[in-house]
Design a protein that fits this description.
Among the domains are: 1-108; 407-485; 490-615, no CATH class. Helices cover 62% and strands 6% of the residues. The protein has helices spanning 20-29, 43-55, 59-71, 78-90, 96-105, 111-122, 128-139, 146-158, 162-175, 181-193, 197-206, 212-224, 228-238, 249-262, 265-277, 284-296, 300-309, 315-327, 331-343, 350-363, 366-380, 386-398, 402-411, 418-431, 434-446, 452-464, 468-480, 511-527, 543-550, 554-565, 582-594; strands at residues 2-7, 14-19, 489-494, 497-502, 572-576, 599-602, 607-611, 614-615. Strands 4-3-5-6-7-8 form a six-stranded mixed β-sheet, covered by helices on one side. It has a two-stranded antiparallel ribbon with strand order 1-2. A hairpin with a 2-residue loop joins strand 7 and strand 8. Helix 21 packs antiparallel against helix 22 (386-398).
């Protein structure tokens, strides 16, 4: 037989489900005390009750314990109430609303009570409540602690409150908690999440005793805020003899990610050596990051070497290798890796299929791509997401099946986003499909997601069919609206230093030598039959003027610099933030044969490996 008992603690009306037998047992163990003598509770009684709270594994039992504590006025005991609050706040059946009810029943909550409830809210679906409690704590003149501030800052990270975090920072300064390294590291993480790298650096400089975690947070901050080269410098600083804090496995993971973003192969190899020297090479997540780094730097042989060295490959390992094959134009090898993965009884996940479909997209395997899309749901019960559909749209679009690609977008089960429309717009540019291109831009405008790059793609479509009137009209529109395009930027690494180039760049200290080298290269390539692809130029200029305008694109300057500063026969690796144009693609292809150089260019979506006058993409990109 069961009953509902109505209680009125702290003017709150709560109903607790009570089992009579269990309630009787609790009453026998802990007799009801009056409010006058409850503070004289014996240590043994307190110990038994705390043990019961800690071992409680069922919600109904917890409710019974709570009811008894209310009836016996033991809620006024700070130690018992704290254990009660902690148990419901962080147990498997945690309920933040219930935690708050318990907290509100505590007559005079101390800093430990506040810390517990603030922490509970900071990891809940209502993180803003943690900040409000922090402010309430100050109003009640309850002293804070570094832990209080740390939990409150984490809540501001969760609900994206810059003002809230700044207010807590000022309180930290007032209360003199700057010496707490853990708190200051959390504060750095807050500024990093809000994109305030300068403020994060200032906090880092204020930390008296920096540990590896603080360094890692700063490195992560630089990577989040697109200061990847600064992140590499921090790794060097950490690894210097003067610094007592040395990189750990987390540092290596972060820096490998930065190397992958920059295409900094030499630096990545240095980090790999550090990993081997310090025994981090056996960790599977480190190996998986190495595969990704080498793949993203165009060094597929080394990526595969790391992959082969993993004893027990998990789905992440296989997916990383498949993705590496895909972005480097080895579509058939990606499919073979998928089949081998199945033979080894490793179940694929959604990331695996993203890699396989990307491989099909880059190599034009239309039938295989549609087959894999079908197998995802039917054989592996994985519903296609926006990334999978994006690969299919790209696959069909590159193959010239634009209407079919459009139908896929209109019929897919997830709402199309700007990326997938942009993918179709890129296909319209390749095939000069004006009407569909205009419709796609209309969709982007409707989503309020249009970017400068979308208008550039539309300019490409108009210029490819020679519609210069539309080009002029669109350029005027962009000028009126203040739409500024992203400048093309190419990078090349030399002895661990990354060099940047933009079109017509004159900022490099060796600019005169670079331009002389590029002029010489152009002469040699013309002798070999290279002719500028003037359709890559979006202005209505004469052929000679267009050829000149194309001569100093950023990737050409980066390649010329590579030829200038490296010995003959050395591979040249360039990373570009935008899609490589047709003319620069032809330029690199001819150069690889004339100068007997392997040229590896990573653009926004894939790698191009140029060898002996040919490209790994087979001119399909």
């Amino acid at each position: 037989m069961s009953y509902f008992l109505t209680l009125h603690p702290s003017s709150l009306n709560l109903r607790f489900y009570l089992s009579v037998s269990c309630f009787t047992t609790l009453t026998n163990l802990f007799p009801t005390t009056s409010s006058q003598n409850q503070l004289n509770i014996t240590k043994q009684t307190q110990k038994h009750l705390i043990s019961l709270i800690k071992s409680c594994s069922k919600k109904t039992h917890f409710l019974q314990i709570h009811a008894h504590i209310i009836l016996t006025s033991l809620i006024q005991d700070p130690t018992i109430s704290l254990h009660l609050l902690s148990r419901i706040s962080f147990s498997p059946f945690r309920e933040t609303r219930y935690s708050r009810q318990i907290f509100d029943q505590i007559p005079n909550p101390n800093v430990s009570h506040f810390n517990t409830i603030i922490r509970a809210y900071s990891i809940s679906n209502s993180p803003e409540q943690a900040f409000y409690l922090f402010k309430n704590m100050r109003k009640k003149c309850v002293p804070t602690s570094p832990l209080t501030c740390s939990f409150a800052i984490k809540s501001c990270i969760r609900f994206c409150s810059l003002i809230g975090g700044v207010q807590i920072h000022s309180r930290i300064l007032r209360d003199g908690y700057q010496s707490d390294s853990l708190l200051m590291t959390t504060l750095m993480d807050f500024y990093s999440n809000r994109g305030k790298s300068v403020q994060a650096c200032r906090v880092f400089d204020e930390i008296s005793q920096r540990d590896t975690v603080a360094w890692n947070v700063l490195i992560s901050c630089y990577i989040r805020n697109q200061r990847t080269r600064d992140a590499l410098c921090l790794f060097d600083n950490m690894n210097s003899e003067e610094n007592e804090c040395k990189p750990d496995d987390v540092t290596c993971l972060l820096v490998l990610h930065a190397c992958a973003q920059l295409g900094a192969l030499e630096f990545g190899e240095k980090v790999h050596s550090f990993i081997e020297e310090h025994g981090y090479g056996d960790a599977k997540n480190v190996c998986n990051s190495l595969i990704a780094m080498y793949s993203r730097c165009g060094s597929l042989d080394k990526a595969y070497w790391v992959f082969k060295g993993i004893r027990e490959k998990n789905v992440v390992s296989w997916s990383a290798m498949i993705h590496g094959f895909a972005i480097n134009g080895h579509g058939r090898e990606a499919i073979e890796a998928f089949e081998e993965m199945q033979r080894r009884s490793v179940l694929p996940d959604d990331q695996t299929f993203t890699g396989v479909l990307l491989a099909c997209s880059h190599c034009g395997f239309v039938d295989e791509g549609m087959m894999f899309l079908d197998r995802m749901s039917k054989e592996f019960n994985i519903l296609p997401n926006i990334h999978h559909y994006g690969c299919i749209v790209d696959l069909l679009g590159r193959a010239g099946l634009l209407d079919q690609a459009y139908q896929v977008i209109m019929s897919m089960e997830v709402k199309p986003d700007s990326t997938i429309w942009r993918t179709l717009l890129g296909a319209c540019r390749i095939h000069g499909h004006v009407n569909l291109g205009e419709r796609v831009v209309g969709q982007l405008i409707e989503l309020k997601a249009q970017e400068a790059g979308d208008y550039v793609l539309l300019l490409n479509i108009y210029s490819s069919v020679g519609n210069w009137e539309k080009v002029k009209e669109l350029r005027c529109f962009m000028k009126e609206k203040g739409i500024q395009t992203t400048p093309g930027c190419s990078t090349i690494e030399l002895k661990g230093v990354v060099h940047d180039f933009v079109v017509d760049d004159v900022s490099h200290p060796r600019k005169d030598e670079i331009y002389e080298m590029l002029d010489e290269i152009n002469k040699q390539l013309k002798i070999a039959g290279y002719v500028s692809e003037i359709t890559s130029e979006l202005h209505n200029l004469a052929a000679e003027e267009k050829g000149y305008a194309l001569s100093y694109h950023s990737e050409k300057l980066a390649i010329a610099f590579g030829v200038l500063v490296t010995p003959p026969g050395t591979a040249i690796r360039v990373a570009k933030n935008l899609r490589i144009c047709v003319d620069c693609h032809n330029f690199a292809k001819v150069l690889s044969g004339v100068y007997n150089r392997e040229v590896i260019i990573r653009d926004r979506t894939r790698f191009h490996h140029f060898r002996e006058g040919h490209c790994s993409c087979n001119d399909y990109w």
